[in-house]
Design goal:
With 161 residues, this protein is mostly helical. It has seven helices and three strands; from the N terminus they run βββααααααα.
Length: 161
């Protein structure tokens, strides 16, 4: 298993190890990021950069002036992927699969798979790993038919990480 980052990959073989080798499937995620960044035609450069930042956590296209303005207004968190992004991804998949009549287990497994794909797309920033771990904890509880709370999910995610 590998966490998808831009510079260093964390892999589990027989023991955890850091590696600079990029797995062969990483090119797919890089292509998807590049394609997403290029689809905002007809809007200003800063608006396109904000959309990329809010959706996939890519603030690299923000102009220096906009970065400065966002820092002055304490709005830099808008271009960081967090729990809200994970909740949107999981919620959409669960809603679509529920509409198709899928079982609870199928909905939770589908949401988990979508979440892992989203994690591969956005990369392993600390806030993303925490949010994804918390979402997986909640999905596991829901898949087992257990009641869930955000605090319980957060506590379990902290223990796991």
């Amino acid at each position: 298993m590998a966490w998808f980052g831009s510079a260093v990959w964390f892999t589990y073989v027989s023991h955890p190890a850091w590696s600079s080798q990029t797995p062969h499937f990483a090119g797919v995620f890089h292509s998807l990021r590049a394609a997403f960044s290029g689809i905002n035609h007809g809007v200003s450069r800063d608006a396109s950069a904000l959309v990329s930042g809010m959706a996939i956590g890519d603030p690299s296209q923000l102009s220096p002036a906009l970065k400065s303005q966002m820092q002055q207004l304490s709005l830099t968190h808008l271009v960081a992927v967090s729990g809200a992004n994970c909740a949107i991804v999981c919620g959409l998949v669960v809603a679509v699969l529920a509409g198709l009549g899928a079982s609870r287990l199928t909905r939770m497994l589908g949401a988990g798979a979508a979440l892992l794909a989203y994690l591969g797309l956005v990369g392993p920033q600390p806030s993303v790993l925490r949010a994804a771990t918390m979402a997986i904890c909640v999905l596991m509880a829901r898949g087992l038919g257990r009641a869930t709370s955000a605090l319980d999910g957060l506590a379990l995610a902290i223990l796991i990480l």
